[in-house]
């Protein structure tokens, strides 16, 4: 890889697999990439797009071979990294998981060259105000940038131009995944488990966590121990906070539009029932009170050492309460905020790579 440029500003990492996840995946990805590349070129952002093809199906072509790419890009280099089925099969549950998204994402992050790194998704559109802000090159090395994710109607895929798509998105938001208000925690709960946490923007945070390469590498990426990767993005948020990185929440009209699709990740996680859980629903009590009683019972079991179990697609995964406990311990300095060893992101592996398009700066020219 030619690396004559001394200042690659932005690396965007997207993990992909040709399995039509969520339905109409090729169209979602084409719309997203067209918009992203158009903006990177128009705002003249020296950048690279890294596509990590993870465990590609043997009976289908690589997605990167069927995407329609622009003929000429001056500002964005497009790289592809292949995580082969042989690498995928080294891991437990490889027969149940078509792609280990966390490991694939870390793989791209580790191989990124930009000063700032943004793990992205295959079905996102970025507001013009957001891209203009990134193009201003005012990002700081010790800040992690977050943003609201606006879920939009999938009919946006019928729009042809980026201008039409963004206009449609602005008028057809299904849900805004914004920052939650700081919850009020009773003093007695604080004394029992130290529940106070800084109110970071963790809603849909995995879709936009923009941070310097310096801190991505110091933190060694997302936590790889959980094969499903539940709450890995939340853990990264609090790990970076514990390390001293300040969270900056970019405000509307800067936002990310997420194209709605089927088989959403949040619908796959199931939490097992607590022992005697059904006893905490009484027909003569209002629903809110039943939920309150169950919540107190849940907290009591946790304090007594009971481990609540969650799974997704039959694979054990991290439960919300345990993830929150880990965040509290990191912030309090009771556990390390670094989860992975020095081989994070398949650092020990020499993976197949190829380049689809080379930007002018990557050829050693003046852009």
Give me the secondary-structure topology.
Layout: E1 10-16, H1 25-42, E2 47-54, H2 63-66, E3 76-83, H3 85-88, H4 101-110, E4 116-119, E5 124-126, H5 128-135, E6 143-147, E7 149-152, H6 162-171, E8 173-177, H7 187-193, E9 211-212, H8 213-219, H9 232-243, E10 246-250, E11 256-259, E12 269-271, H10 287-303, E13 310-312, E14 315-317, H11 320-331, E15 352-357
Parallel strand pairs: 1-2, 1-4, 2-3, 6-10, 7-11
Antiparallel strand pairs: 3-15, 4-9, 5-11, 7-8, 12-13, 13-14
Helix pairs in contact: 9-11
Note down, in words, how this protein is organized.
This protein is an alpha/beta fold and about 375 residues long. Helix content is about 30%, strand content about 20%. The protein has helices at about 25-40, 65, 85-90, 100-110, 130-135, 160-170, 185-195, 215-220, 230-245, 285-305, 320-330; strands spanning about 10-15, 45-55, 75-85, 115-120, 125, 145, 150, 175, 210, 245-250, 255-260, 270, 310, 315, 350-355. Helix 2 (about 65) links the parallel strand 2 and strand 3. The model is unreliable at about 1-5 (pLDDT under 50).
User: How much is the radius of gyration in Å?
Assistant: 21 Å
Mean pLDDT: 89
Biggest pleated sheet: 6 strands, mixed
The count of strands amounts to: 15
The fraction of residues assigned to DSSP E strands is 15-25%
- Which word captures the global form? globular
Task: Give the helix/strand class.
Answer: alpha/beta
Distance between the termini: 18 Å
Uncertain stretches: 1-6
Helix content: 25-40%
Topology pattern, helix = H, strand = E: EHEHEHHEEHEEHEHEHHEEEHEEHE
Q: Counting H and I runs of at least 4 residues, what is the number of helices?
A: 11
Taking strands numbered 1, 2, ... along the chain, how are they ordered across the largest sheet? Answer: 9-4-1-2-3-15
């Amino acid at each position: 890889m030619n690396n004559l440029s001394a200042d690659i500003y932005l690396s965007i990492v997207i993990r992909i697999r040709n399995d039509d996840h969520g339905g109409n995946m090729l169209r979602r990805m084409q719309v997203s990439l067209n918009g992203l590349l158009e903006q990177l070129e128009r705002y003249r952002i020296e950048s690279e797009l890294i596509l990590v093809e993870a465990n590609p199906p043997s009976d289908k072509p690589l997605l990167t071979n069927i995407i329609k790419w622009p003929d000429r890009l001056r500002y964005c280099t497009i790289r592809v990294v292949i995580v082969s089925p042989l690498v995928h099969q080294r891991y437990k549950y490889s027969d149940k998981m078509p792609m280990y998204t966390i490991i694939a994402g870390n793989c791209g992050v580790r191989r990124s060259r930009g000063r700032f790194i943004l793990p992205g998704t295959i079905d996102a559109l970025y507001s013009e105000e957001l891209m203009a802000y990134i193009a201003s090159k005012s990002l700081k090395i010790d800040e992690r940038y977050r943003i609201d994710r606006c879920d939009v109607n999938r009919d946006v895929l019928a729009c042809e131009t980026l201008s039409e798509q963004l206009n449609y998105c602005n008028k057809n938001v299904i849900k805004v995944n914004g920052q939650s208000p700081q919850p009020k925690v009773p003093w007695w709960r604080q004394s029992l488990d130290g529940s106070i946490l800084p109110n970071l923007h963790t809603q849909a945070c995995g879709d936009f966590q923009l941070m310097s390469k310096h801190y991505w590498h110091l933190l060694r990426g997302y936590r790889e121990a959980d094969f499903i990767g539940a709450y890995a993005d939340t853990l990264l948020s609090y790990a970076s906070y514990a390390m001293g990185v300040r969270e900056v929440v970019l405000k509307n009209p800067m936002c990310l539009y997420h194209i709605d699709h089927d088989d959403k990740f949040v619908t796959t996680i199931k939490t097992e029932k607590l022992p005697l859980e059904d006893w905490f629903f009484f027909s003569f009590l209002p629903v809110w009170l039943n939920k309150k009683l169950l919540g107190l019972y849940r907290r009591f079991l946790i304090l007594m050492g009971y481990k609540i179990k969650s799974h997704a697609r039959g694979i054990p995964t991290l439960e919300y309460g345990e993830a929150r406990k880990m965040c509290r311990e990191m912030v309090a300095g009771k556990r390390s905020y670094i989860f992975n060893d020095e081989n994070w992101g398949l650092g020990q592996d020499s993976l197949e790579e190829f380049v689809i398009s080379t930007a002018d700066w990557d050829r050693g020219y003046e852009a």
